[in-house]
Amino acid sequence: SEPDEYGWITVTISNSQLSKFGDSISYLDILIQGGSTETPYAVWLDAAYIQTVLAVPANIAMNEGTITWDSVAGAQGYIVEVNGEEFEVQEAEYTPEVAADGIYIVRVKAVGGTAAADSAWSESVTFTAKTLAEGVYSDFSDKSYEGEFSWSVQGGWNAPSASTAYVPDVAGAADGAVVATITATSAGNAALRITLRKPIVVSELTNGLYIRFKLEGTGDGAGIYGLYTTGNKNQFYHAEGIANVRRYIKADAGGWQILQIPAGANFSGTVSSIDILIAAVTPSATFTFSFDYIADHVIGNVPPEGTFADFSDASYVYDISDIGRPNDWDAVSRSVTYAETAEGTSDGALHLELGTRTTFNTLASFKVTLRQPIEAGSSIVIRMKTDNIGFLYGIFFDGGSVDDGNNTKFTVAEDTDGWSLVTIDGSRVTASGSVIFMFANKEMGATLSLDLDYIMLSQS
To answer: What are the phi and psi torsion angles at 397 (to 5°)?
Structure first.
């Protein structure tokens, strides 16, 4: 290096040069070459500065607002530079005081103290930090997610072809997606492991787990065969073949699909990663998976305060589930769709076909998972349209049932374009994250259909 203000020169010998001398060095020879035999030279050595240089910190990452990197052997601490400002830390991590969403440009160097020389600065790494919303375990919204995917390739797959990459402009994914690709060489299986950004506490799942993905491929038999928590292949769904998992997959807009694992499925504890097993039937088939999010709900419209569900886009289809007496009604005839131009609404509505009655003296029921919870004592109004409002037997909340008398405690008023306003007094409303509708019909072969516009606080 150039002499400092006192005339001292620091000479740095790289690891690659030192390695030429073996595992250890007990002394150093300094060769001084002069331009003239008559020129005197004096060399002063500062023994305190004959020392090793620490390695440069590697694998810098940012998860949930915390910056991490690999520990460096011999380091007494680290200096991390974030957007041009330096911070001293003892451990190999740093959380900005305000871990807000935004752009972070980060570089790190290891501090040696008196035992070693500081490392050089690492290369700068840029992160787009995003705090995950409540109930979202991974949203695959930036390049850092690439490192959370890994392939386990069995016979019949071309291991070098397996790859994952973040793509910021995938159609149908608001903030990009991670795209995983692999090519088969013969019939067989391969597993893709996804390490979750936030672990799933299974006991806290009330509505199940939702994985939004898109599968594109060539050849027959492309599909998800099994879904496991890491290390336990008896969990989630397996043993019944591809159809067992596929029956929980619903089509979404733009070629996307949503796999819903119902609450109470065969998995438990805390889940930190998920293994997805895919099956190939045709040799040389190429599969491309795009992943949008893993969450405990369908990510979509969040209605304004005071509105619990406004049924204003197709994502609400996934908030509807059958909960009662499925054997008494023809399941094949049940369906839920979103109608963007429903008459009498400004933003569309959900249309439900509740099925055809197959036995006498039975009820049909379904549950709407709300986008915002209802507080106890809140009077609510539901705008709905049905073939015969007289078939509406009861409306209940979390923990409610037909036995508690709630079914007699709502009023119905006519609205425009054939819609009805169903009002429930706050004295009958408990704190709830869902609303259960129950219908009765005395006619064999009768069908029921229902349209839903909104569920919100009553203004009266």
So the answer is: -125, 180
Q: Name which of 114, 191, 120, 185 is nearest 156 in CA terms.
A: 185
The type of residue at 219 is G
Burial (CB count <10 Å: 0-12, 13-18, 19+), residue 243: exposed
Sequential DSSP letters for 381-399: EEEEEES-GGGEEEEEETT
Q: What is the mean pLDDT of residues 239-268?
A: 67
Residue 9, classed as helix, strand or coil, is: coil
The CA distance from 398 to 84, in Å, is: 51
Q: Are 303 and 371 in contact (CB under 8 A)?
A: yes
The answer to whether 250 touches 317, Cβ cutoff 8 Å, is: yes
Torsion angle of the four alpha carbons 261, 263, 266, 267, in this order, in degrees rounded to the nearest 10: 90
Reduced to 3 states, what is the DSSP secondary structure of residue 135?
coil
Query: How confident is the model at residue 188, as a pLDDT?
Result: 65
pLDDT in tens, 140-163: 988 778 878 888 765 555 556 778
Q: How confident is the model at residue 326 (pLDDT cuts 50, 70, 90)?
A: very low
